[in-house]
Amino acid sequence: MKIRLHSAVSVLAAVAAMAASSGALAQAEGQWAIKAGVGKITPKVESGDVSAPALPGSKAAISADTQPVFAVAYGVTDNLTVELDLGLPYKHKISGAGAIEGVGVLGTVKALPPTLFVYHRFYEPEARFRPYLGVGATYAYFADETGSGKLTTLSDIGGPPTTFSLKNKFAATLQVGLIVNINKKWFVDGNISKTWLKTKVSFSSGQTQDMTLNPQAVTLALGYKF
User: Is 209 in contact with 200 (CB distance < 8 Å)?
Assistant: First the structure.
C-alpha cells in the first residue's frame, strides 16, 4: 500500500492534539531517542545536456517520492544532539526535458540518502516546543538504475538496450525543524531540509550527463525517548 504524506500528517496531528498536559521532557544529555514516520524528497534538478552523440539540449527531469523513514539520536548535551537518519530507498522516475521534453519516462532509479546530523535544540529540556537547526553529511547512494526502450531509442537506436548509472556522492545538508513533546517519552518531530548534491550519469552507449539534484525533503515522525 502506498504511504501518503497527508494521511500521516493527519494521524500525527491527532496524536499531538490528544496529548496529556503533563510536563514534557525533550531529549536531554545522555538520553537516546528513536523516531519513525514518512519523508518526501523532491529533487530540484538543474540538468546538464547529454554529451554527443545526442540531440543538442537533451536534458532530464526527476520525480519526487515518499517513503517511510526512521532515525536514532543521542543527546550529547541538553542542547546538542547527534542523529542518524535512515529509511527505505526512494524510487524516482527520470523523464525527458529540454529538447526531448514530452518523450516520457526514460528510466527509474532508487536513491538511499543516509544522513548523520548534528543539531542544536533551542530552549530548555522541559520546554513543550523545541525548534532546532541541524547540519548533516549525506551519502547519496544510487541503485537499480533501469532504462526504458525510449532511452535506447534516443541514445543508441538499433543497438543493445541502453543502461545507465549515477555516481554515488557525499553532500552537505541543512535542516530546520520543530519538536512537540507530547509527554515525558513521546514527541512529534517535523522538519524540512535541503541537500546540495551534484552527480554524473554514465550511459552504456558512451554518453555522460552532469546533474545537479539539490533535493528538498519534508519529514514528519513520531518519536520515543529512553
Answer: yes
